[in-house]
Amino acid sequence: MNKIGFNVLAWSAVISDDLFPIIERLKTIGYDGVEYFVGSPDEPAYKRVGQHTKDIGLGVTCVSVVGKDENPISDSAAVRAKALDRLKWEIDRTHDLGSKILCGPIHSAHAVFASRAPLDDEYAWGAEVLHAAGEYAAQADVVLGLEALNRFETYLCNTMEQLLRLIRATDHPNVRAMFDTHHANVEEKSYAKALQTIAPVLVHVHISENDRGTPGDGMVLWDDAFSALAQIDYRGWLTIEAFSRNDPDFANAIGVWREYSPPWDIAENGLTFIQKMCQKHGVGA
């Protein structure tokens, strides 16, 4: 049986005690876990939030990004060193939260472009940094789940084929892949082919509608997606990632300029939708 989670980015990118009522309500709705964004600087808050989440019986997963000054694929060795330091910090905070997975587009700086296709050198530089990060993550029993994003957010890894290339080059058991239905809706030819490609290294899945609103209310080919997940016998987390403007700083940083669906509507209807689709297609059976 797959566990179902909800990413609290629908409310806030900040780790603080203000999240307690949100995660408690997610527990009441019926979620198995929550996903936190690793980024805010208050380090003690990560342990407090992680402990509270554990105390109420929820699991934890984490997601993060890296910026232009800490870019693993920079041609500057100094910047790549900063990238590794940043990834180590994110792994530490993931451990503080009690999570065993840190996912996201941490292979390259978010929304930083080179006005050309990715270079072989960039894959090599990224693999070197990520291998070292994988070594560090292994000590904390954390797995890194690299995420391919659409062409408007990154240029290194848009597809599962590109992502698999990077993971193979990295060559570390603690560096694996995640799959996001929103980005795949933009970049892939079919859910079946994409998921079959990445299946050997897949550790995490984001369930996200094309407009980042309630799963099932948009244009994603959900029957294709869940059928493909069943075909590869995926048993990991199915975590809803939806966005809003509740946290303006975060919303502005990722280009969220309007509201999609009320967060609690997404949480309540999204859980029902995932359960229905899993039963329909035999995901986790």
UniProtKB/TrEMBL annotation:
- Taxonomy, superkingdom: Bacteria
Pfam families registered for this protein in UniProt = AP_endonuc_2
Residue ranges of domain Xylose isomerase-like TIM barrel in the record: 24-253
One annotated GO molecular function is: isomerase activity
What keywords tag this UniProt record?
Isomerase
> What PANTHER family does this protein map onto?
HYDROXYPYRUVATE ISOMERASE, INOSOSE DEHYDRATASE
Question: This protein is called what?
Answer: Sugar phosphate isomerase/epimerase
Question: Species name for this entry?
Answer: Nibrella viscosa
Q: Tell me the classification of the organism that encodes this protein.
A: Bacteria, Pseudomonadati, Bacteroidota, Cytophagia, Cytophagales
